[in-house]
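Annex B. Sample input.
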Amino acid sequence: MPPTMTRQWCSKLFLRKKNRLVMQLGTGDATRALQSAMVAVNDVAAIDINMGCPLKFSTASGAGSALLKKPETVHDILTTLRRNLPAETHVTCKIRLLETMEQTVELARVIEKCGVSAFGVHGRYVGQRPRDAAHWDQIKQVVESVSCPVIANGDVFEYSDFGKIRAETGAAAAMCGRGAMWNQSIFRKEGVIPPRDNLNSLLTKCFEWNHSLKNTKYLTREILIKSTGLENEEGWALNKSKSLADVAGVFNIPANVIGRKRVSNLKRPCEDLVENDENVRVKSSSEQ
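Annex B, continued. Sample output.
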């Protein structure tokens, strides 16, 4: 799909949400990062680079946490984006803790010098799993070592935790991962809504926009794991579902909502390859 068609698709659906949308990329290559960013640059507020994912599908290509020990590549990716993207488009990234505090601070300062608007710090080492407590004290040390805004991440499970992690680390902002996967209403000051109400709301949106079956099932599993579990009839039926209609039947949601908000004559950007990406010209540092 040509970039112009991609932009038309995004603009129709997300124009009023642009200031809330961030496009995160998993990449270990500056040129490819820019080519990908240019697809959606007119429709998002920021381009973020994932530098923390420890999973093999990410690190095998040099992306995710593989970047933590490649400061030159980090610098290349971030400066390429900052030089070539519109000034109003924010460039950010997210990292994990390195083996020593000194290494983490050194990388943080490299990132800051690239001109990013902010960067996130997940308070865990690459080898740590979610069950291990996040090191808020080390996030604080990163915050104190740079002037750039830092976004703290790790062990935010309810609305009050956003304030707690900011207070304890001095971070400019906070983000959450698992808490938001388990119940998307974590961002409500009034408190989370019941898990089943939250699930029905999420599924209805997935059905209305004809979301991919694979990701719809993944999101549903994440919610069920934290609430009712998957070792029951509902969980087994979800795993066996072969279509969105099957999933709708499992949770007693009318199948006629499927696709009712989908723009039928336009494809998703991911349904076709972006054409003419070789025409995306990378501005060199000498052209600044």
